[in-house]
Amino acid sequence: MAMKRSSSSEKDQRAEKNTALLSDEFQIHIFVFSLLVICLESLTFLGSSFDAYYSQGFIFATIAFFAFYACIGHVFEMFVGKRVSAVFSVLPSVLIFFLLNKSAFQGIAASALLAAVLRILFVLLPKKKTIITVGSFLLGALSLYLYFEKDAEFAGKITATILFVSILILILSSVQKIFCEKKLFQTREAFPFYFFMILGLLVLVIPKPEKPIDWTKALEMGDRFISSFNYYMPDIFSGGTYKSGYSNLGVTGGKVSLSDTTQLKLKTYERPYFVFEDKSGTKIKRRRTMYLSGGKGSDKTQIVTFVNFLHNNNIDKETAKLFSEIGSIGLEYAYLKTNDEIAPLNALYLESAGKAVEGGRASSVHKKGYVLNVTFLNIDYGSPYLSELLRENGRSMELMTFDEACDYFRKTYGPNLDKYVSYDEYDAVCAKGFLANSASEYLDTNGASTELSKLAKELTEGVSSDYDKCRAIEKYLRQYKYSTDVESIGNTTYDINTSKGASALAERFLFDTGEGYCIHYTSSMVILLRLSGIPARACVGFHYVFPFEKADSYDVSGRCAHAWPEAYIENVGWVPFEPTSAYRSQEENTWNRVRAEETGQVQYGYEPSHAPVITPDKADDDDDNKEKSLSYELIRVVLPVIGSVVILLLVLMFGIKVVQSIRYRLASLDKKLEMDIAGIKKAVRKKSGDSFTDRGLLFEYVKRIPSKFQTQAKEVFGAYYRLVYGGDSALPITDEDVKKARELYGALSRKNNRPK
N or C, fewer C-beta in 10 Å, the chain? Predict the structure, then answer.
């Protein structure tokens, strides 16, 4: 075995060197990927502006650019040193950035520059292997902390999976390195890095079960344990802070840690934004918002009330389009533990697994993967047309018969009302009255102080309609500072649906701290409305703002959990309001639809599922009026980048030749001979096809030189030996010696003079 190893060819040695180089690059790429994901995830929790870039696409684009710079860097390294090649390899990144920033791929422009910075950093970084070894353990610890303590999702399921496999690979390799260095393993040699990569790939490709493990029981046991422990030692686990989310929103009114854990997934065919023109004719694109309320289900009373309200105000189909339309959406429960059915406001019909869902609360907890399909009446409560109707509503309600209501609903919205409300349900609502006998519950002010009563009177005195009173209170509350960093009142918990609970939170918010979050604003508005004689209630759920980009599904995280008040406007039904200052008001979120006679056409805020496709001249320029295809854009970016790389390569090749020529001209005779000998040896090694090991013996080179040049080679090598070993008494190197060496170097460099 020893003989075989010692006689290995230079080709084999080169292959081993390339394998080691490739292994090192894989390790660096895996480490950079893990570092990038964890750093960006950490920045999101610090409220960094990097949120705008944080996505799976951004991360993978950065790694792709990092790999691209590594490849061209190694090509350049054949001509210049590693550090110089690193700088040259990232020069195209500037060109890439400007090209991408003016194309359809501008979202990944920043990733090109970030990858360039990372590449230079890791090439110039001293003691890279030690840093990667130690850093692997730090990244592993930080990733576990983010996952378990911060509910981090690491930009998505795919990224999270690859991240943890990458960290596993790095840690296993680092552990082996540490033990091998301390000689704790009695093995001949350590496993190469690609061995751990293969293990990681196996972990990725091993089939996973279709349904995830149901940890509900274990989590419930853990919750009970922590709850009982906190009974004797309060806040030992939470430190007085709880995480935002549907199931625990509005418990104490204390500090809230915003959670990015996905609780719902939304699917809709409608656009996530709407487009409208301002007074100057400029097109404006605004994201769509949605309130998702829990525990209501399909409110038949609300449906019947609103339909009769529209009919009493002689609202026809075209006018109704200005502020309302039928919508549909699918909701999938993710990390959400509740019995409640969560649906958009004014839900008409709920369905799950092909069956109608009755009521707003199930008998058992919904598990992850529970899907709910909802048809709802989407209402723009910020529309000036609807606001005017709500403000002037004072006429007595004249109820339609069931058949009349069905006919009116069909003419106004398309489907028949009997799809959502049966004859018996409609008759029951009309018979008992819209608010029924529960008005006292929504007017309860038990626990409210005289100071609250005084404030309610000041805010609504002289205001005529109930709707305007609601707006006055809402406007007043929106002046207060929004903050999730507020202290709870001792260890007391409050139910914001009760008058006492709402009053206690309102007192502290309005007259003590002066800051709070949604439950404080909601509690305050509910109790102030009731003190003003307007029935009001608190609602909990989610407030979701869609992105500008259309997607197959949208993730609703725990940080979207929200509470808001609803006021009962007589003959209209329940109307939501937004007093929380951190959220846009209803007027700011309006669809901005206007009457046809005002603009010549009705402007649709976003494309409803039953509406025709909006033509490009009426739609958004960013998505529908693309002058150039993605393929053209890709070519427009790729070709200049390839050209820049080729130009840089040519600059390096010819630049090096020019520099070497200048160095040779300026060198002494001794130095010229040394440079020519190095060139001769390189030419022989390059053109020798069989095995060859450089042992420092020049006569072994002579054997591989064509016979017609061997005599000249012996003379040149003799002069070189005289220079190296002759000492002070040796004859000096002459111009003739250098001339022979230069001629031999040139002859061997030509293709037709290949060594034996």
Answer: N
Residues 69, 115 contacting (CB under 8 angstroms):
yes
Rounded Cα distance, 322 and 379, in Å: 9
Give me the torsion for CA of 743, 746, 750, 756, rounded to 10°: 70
- What are the distances in angstroms from CA 478 to CA 48, 411, 454, 541, 703? 25, 39, 19, 20, 92
The 3-state secondary structure of 397-456 reads: CCCCCHHHHHHHHHHHHCCCHHHCCCHHHHHHHHHHCCCHHHHHHHCCCCCCCHHHHHHH
Q: Which residues on adjacent β-strands are paired with residue 377?
A: 326
For 141-162, the pLDDT digits (tens) are: 998 888 777 667 777 778 888 9
| 521-535 per-residue burial string, b: 16 or more CB within 10 A, e: under 16 | bbbbbbbbbbbbebb
For 167-203, give the secondary structure using H, E and C.
HHHHHHHHHHHHHHHCCCCCCCCCCCHHHHHHHHHHH
**What is the sign, positive or negative, of the torsion defined by CA atoms of 132, 133, 136, 137?**
negative
Per-residue pLDDT tens over the stretch 360-380: 999 888 888 899 999 999 999
How many angstroms from the chain centroid is the CA of residue 216?
27
Cα gap 291→283, rounded to integer Å: 26
Which residues pair with residue 258 across a beta bridge? none
Residue 303's identity, in one-letter code, is I
**Residue with tokens 């850093």, as numbered in its chain:** 135
Tens digit of each residue's pLDDT (9 = 90 or more) over 178-214: 877 665 555 556 788 878 888 888 888 777 655 555 5
Residue with tokens 């693309």: 626
Kindly report the backbone phi and psi dihedral angles of residue 625, in degrees, each rounded to the nearest multiple of 5, phi listed first: -115, 50
Q: Mention every residue, 6+ apart, whose C-beta is less than 8 A from residue 256.
A: 241, 242, 243, 244, 484, 517
Which of the listed ranges 218-227, 307-316, 661-670 does the model predict with the highest average pLDDT? 307-316
Place of tokens 């190197």: 733
Enter the tokens of residue 17.
Answer: 């060197």
Q: What is the largest CA-CA distance in the chain?
A: 126
Two tokens at 71? Answer: 């490849």
Q: Among candidates 266, 268, 248, which has minimal Cα distance to 257?
A: 248
> Where are the strands (E) in 533-624, listed by range?
536-545, 554-557, 561-569, 573-576
Q: Specify whether the CB–CB gap between 230 and 526 falls below 8 A.
A: no
Report, in this order, helix, strand and coil percent for the chain, each rounded to 5: 55, 10, 35
